[in-house]
Amino acid sequence: MVEKTLYETISNAGTNNNVPARQSSIDMGNNQHILTCYNKSLRVNEMNATKNKDKTVRNESMQPLYAQIKDILKQRIMDEDYEVHERLPSESEMMKLFGVSRITVRQALRDLHTEGLVFSVQGKGTFVSRPKAVQDVQRLQGFGEAMSPQGYETSARVVSVQETHPNQEVAEALKLPQNASVIELTRIRYLNREPISYFPHNVGQGLLGRDLTQDIFPMLENEFGVGLGHADLKIEAIGADQSLAKHLNVEVASSILRIQRLVFSEAGDPIDFEYLSYRGDAFQYQLRVERN
User: Fold this and answer.
1) How far apart are CA 286 and CA 135, in angstroms?
2) Which pTM was predicted?
3) Residue 200: per-residue pLDDT
4) What is the CATH number of the domain that holds 51?
5) Can you tell me the distance from the alpha carbon of 183 to that of 198, in angstroms, rounded to the nearest whole number?
6) Which candidate in 108, 231, 236, 257 could, as Cys together with 263 as Cys, close a disulfide (CB 3.0–4.6 Å)?
7) Are residues 34 and 14 in the same domain?
């Protein structure tokens, strides 16, 4: 994720901790490049072996054959027997393996597509999708606060820290004159050591000289006594420009989830303006809406 956050000035340089990102890729055609692609041999023999482990389809079952096949493949994906971007056996191989028709295999694959577990590349086959990290948009949390309880390893790399004057959008959001001074912090956030987001922050002077690879929200609350109240969010889809593509290891014009977040203190004062840019294939926000 690429974060861009702008904080109101609060009283030098942050620590740069470089986190290497895996950059191996394979050209899947149609200008699609899949990062960390595993191009392994098909595991038909392994899947045949599962027949002795109650992992095959049963004609006498009340569950449709396509649903049984979907469940078998889903379990292997969830168990990481098939790794991210690894190709599944072909339709013909599955027909022979499970003793079913092509239409049954295709229905199983369609259901896996619907659940976001696989994707297809024309002429190449069906591949395991990258699992998306999920953050509840209804809670105001930092990236690490949201991801760590889900078992993810989170880290950050500071790209730059500089004192600057806010542009009109930032000045209006933070209720500052345009000639005011803010500190802009640009960081790349990593999830399990892969870049997922990128953000520039305008941070207060008090944050300079501290470890800015940490979550900022707990720092504001615990070290500066700034209670956080709520945030206003705007969410949009954009295409990655050259800078975002470089930082997030994606192709130019790839789908990016962009969040504009304005954070307020408990007293209702705007204290933090952020641009958060997430890889579209790696992250999603989740929320529940009530009818009434």
Assistant:
1) 6
2) 0.57
3) 63
4) 1.10.10.10
5) 17
6) 231
7) no
* 94 vs 271: CA distance, rounded Å: 56
Token pair for 284: 């999603």
Do 96 and 169 belong together in one domain? Answer: no
* CATH number of residue 147's parent domain: 3.40.1410.10
pLDDT tens readout for residues 211-266: 888 888 898 899 888 899 999 998 899 999 999 999 998 899 999 999 888 899 99
Q: What whole-number percentage of the chain has pLDDT above 90?
A: 25
- Same domain membership, residue 215 and residue 98: no
How far from 256 is each of 125, 188, 277, CA to CA, in Å?
Answer: 25, 14, 6
CB 151 within 8 A of CB 182: no
> Does residue 174 fall inside a structural domain?
yes
Three-state DSSP class for 75?
helix
* Side-chain half-sphere CA neighbours of 290 within 13 A: 2
The β-bridge partners of 284 are 134
The answer to whether 24 touches 36, Cβ cutoff 8 Å, is yes
Structure confidence by residue, pLDDT tens digits, 154-165 = 889 999 888 888
Domain of residue 86, residue span: 29-123
User: Higher model confidence: residue 260 or residue 204?
Assistant: 260
Of 41, 50, 21, nearest to 86 (Cα)?
41
